[in-house]
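Second attempt. The first submission of Sigma-54 dependent transcriptional regulator had a stray character pasted in from the spreadsheet, which I only caught after the job came back as garbage. Lesson logged: always re-copy from the clean sequence file. Corrected sequence (451 aa) follows.
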Amino acid sequence: MKILVIDDDRGLRRSLSLILEDAGYTVVQAADGAEGLRMAAAESPAMILCDVRMPEMDGLEFLDRYRDSGGGALVLVMTAYGSSELAVEAMKKGAYDYIPKPFGADEVILTVRKAEEREDLRREVGRLRKEVRADRRFGDLVARSASMVEALGVATKVAPHDSPVLLSGQSGTGKELVARLIHKESSRADGPFVPVNCGAIPENLLESEFFGHVKGSFTGADRDRVGLFEAARGGSLFLDEVGELPSSLQVKLLRALQELEIRPVGGDQTLTVDVRIIAATNRDLEEAVAEGDFRQDLYYRLAVVPIHLPALVRRAEEIPELARHFLERHQERMGIEIDGIAPDAMEVLLSYPWPGNVRELENVLERALVLAEGPRVTVEDLPARVRNPSHGGMLATDDDDLSVKRRLAELERQLIQRALERTSGNKTQAAELLELSPRALRYKIQDYGLN
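This time the job returned cleanly.
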């Protein structure tokens, strides 16, 4: 961030510049108010530190003229001991805060950072308010970020057609919700929506689960069983975590999709397939194809219309709306009344990286709703891992969170961050350290918002 320092005392300008530059800020200087106006127009600083008492043009006049010229930078005034009335007058004219002289380095940095954080939050809230009128509603989903508006726009466009859709994205980004949206907006909406987690079915039962079996076809088959394809007839079959299917079933699934026919295990008759396939994965299936873990022909059969759902950290502007939605849903279900979320608690939610994505956000808010003792959710009602995401180093979580997916996702994010720092941002070298392909690393960097 660029800061303009305006003071007629050369030594003080130099001291302030060193303090701010050591803290990572870019500093430009001006010796008086008139020069300050010229520098502000030329350099477009994000913040201005201006002395109140200066010859010819003092800080108050500078403020008036700077605001009249359309200047929008944050202005902090510096006042000598006993000049608090000037500081108050400056704040009435639009100054954001003041720093009393004499001051120490820590006091300056603390005041600047506090002002910077407040302004960032104010801008975030302002941007979200402006977007309220422009939000897009897709069934029960609300999208404000450009990436989600685009993803859900594609989903609604493809919904009326029977083309297979492949939804990709990290766990917890809402892939099943989007799959249900596609089904609801399709001509099959009156038919069944049958979800199945492909990674949760034992391999020896997969074929029977998908295609059914006839009585006596194997030990324990004491009656005919209808498979998932038949159960979803006339509707949609949602194959969640399709990347976890073993190669043996990949072959059979491909044949079913190509020929639009299935044969139950142990049966001698084929049945016509009448389902719409919507698949989802948290893996990079193109990378899995390149590594030989997933059939290329099946990938192209499933990914006729690919839709990627970004991680929540990439669409943080949606967090306030999602938070309100989850609180309303759960307080109605639980019979608890809450007026909303305190501003400092919302600030914490906005700054947390959300390795578990939307699902983790909902989990955190349901927990906060139970623990809240006042009229609003406060910072104290949030889990320790959310309040202090960096506390304790790698895998900082609270003891209540036993989610393997969330912990592994956070570990992966931190490892990638460390590798990028160690290699000064060289993605090829970072991929070697992480034992990932460069393409897989680029995919994960995008998902975790590490650009």
